[in-house]
Specification:
Rossmann fold, two-stranded parallel ribbon, alpha/beta, 15% strand, globular, 299 residues, 11 strands
Length: 299
């Protein structure tokens, strides 16, 4: 359903004043109609919580809402539209009386070499993966601040650990998300609002089947062939249910981490990337330190 929502300020006041219903939490999950978002919504409902399930089209959520009467609020919204994101958050807060867990899961994958991206393709990748999460985070903060707590969970990716050939713009969107979220975590801490960045490896969703691709340049054909060979040999994908179980453990924790890796592939890569960076920094320490020397301000 599409809703007409009150202002964020009004929703924040309502959320602060309203008591929790039955002691369960209220979740706000974007991209909830399929993939990881659907698994997150189902896990929250199985735990006895309530879910504002956000998607561009909500027909796929009808069955979920029917199976959990009164505990699912389908909301039609395109999170790349800032006004729509704010309206959806306000509608959820007004409907349930509070928000506890906000999961920015909506995302897309655009594949192509960096050189191949048009301006429109590059902006579209950033619009969903970064700006969509930014708008929802901005809309949620007044509501969470008003009640003195809550948890914002940003679904990043293994692509947020490092850039790879053909997923450079995807990684760029996740790097931007993570940088913003680190700052948000420090800003929200003063109000009891927690922020976590989740970095999943591969899961059986439609991320790859629905991805957009650039118009390929012939110069990259050999690299593409090598990448296809590597993916055929080394792809590891898991059930979304396992990611949802990890997410529940995260939001149940009294002191949730800023970052949570999902899967051995992501875990091992994170350590490999960190070790290679440390080695590079150490090898260039002399040059790095020589580039800094305090001097008086220019006249």
């Amino acid at each position: 359903m599409t809703t007409t929502a009150p202002s964020t300020a009004a929703a924040a006041a309502a959320a602060a004043a309203a008591p929790a219903t039955g002691g369960s939490r209220t979740w706000f999950v974007t991209g909830a109609s399929r993939g990881l978002g659907r698994a997150f919504a189902e896990a929250a409902l199985a735990a006895g919580d309530r879910v504002a399930a956000v998607a561009r089209t909500t027909a796929a959520l009808d069955e979920l809402a029917a199976a959990h009467p009164g505990r699912v609020l389908p909301l039609t919204a395109d999170v790349t539209d800032r006004a729509a994101a704010f309206a959806a958050v306000a509608a959820a807060a007004e409907h349930f009386g509070r928000l506890d867990v906000v999961v920015n899961n909506a995302g897309t994958l655009s594949a192509g070499m960096v050189e191949e991206f048009t301006e429109a393709e590059a902006r579209a990748q950033m619009d969903v993966n970064f700006f969509g999460a930014l708008w929802v985070s901005q809309a949620a903060m007044p509501v969470l601040r008003a009640r003195g707590g809550g948890h914002v969970v940003q679904i990043s990716s293994i692509g947020g650990l490092a850039g790879f050939p053909s997923t450079g713009l995807y990684s760029a969107s996740k790097f931007a998300l993570e940088g913003m979220s680190e700052a948000l975590a420090m800003e929200g801490a003063a109000f009891g609002v927690k922020v976590s960045i989740v970095q999943p490896g591969g899961y059986w969703t439609d991320l790859y089947t629905s991805m957009r691709t650039t118009t390929p340049l012939a110069a990259y054909a050999p690299l593409r062939a090598e990448l296809e060979r590597q993916w055929a040999e080394g792809s590891v994908d898991s059930e979304p249910r396992l990611a949802a179980e990890a997410l529940l453990a995260l939001v149940d924790a009294e002191e949730p981490p800023l970052r949570l890796l999902l899967g051995s592939t992501a875990y091992d890569l994170a350590f490999d990337v960190a070790e290679r960076r440390r080695a590079t920094w150490a090898g260039w320490e002399r040059v790095s330190r020589a580039a800094e020397k305090a001097v008086p301000p220019p006249a």
